[in-house]
Amino acid sequence: MKKQFIRLTVNGDTREIAVAPNQALVEVIRDQFGLTGTKRGCTSGSCGVCTVNGAPGEAVLSCLELAIEWDGRSLTTIESVEQNGQLSPLQQAFWELGAVQCGFCTPGLIMSAKALLDANPAADAEAINEALAGAICRCTGHIKVKEAVARAVEVMAAANAVKEGSDGAQG
Ligand code: FES
Ligand code: FES
Fold it and tell me: What is the mean pLDDT of residues 91-115?
């Protein structure tokens, strides 16, 4: 099949790349950007291990997306979540509560949860359940993962309250 060039930005890195019309976005992320944190599992939208974020707050199953339809668009992957070697509050909560599972499902769990918290920083248990419903781990459970996302909500709310307090004191 004849390839076409698209311009895609992943984690702020913009590249012109040749893609086949039937090439899935997950293939481009892994094979052309070399970002293998995003996993390729069922390739049919059932497991969530390929989850990336499109616009902030938007979880995208990259196995179901045609790369060619992402011409001119941008996305973020698990590799973008830590900043300068610092874990994000969400990653920190996973770490502290023992919610880090295997390297295959954890990136998708984090990216699903990140999309939720970007869209709804005050997510409640129901919203957390819903956001994680498509991120499957068949070997253990979601209990610690859900606790970790709830912890991240608390930590982020506390950090915002401190920031607002100091902004108010300065203003
Ligand atoms: S690989 Fe995309 S949902 Fe399973
Ligand atoms: S698939 Fe990762 S721990 Fe089960």
Answer: 96
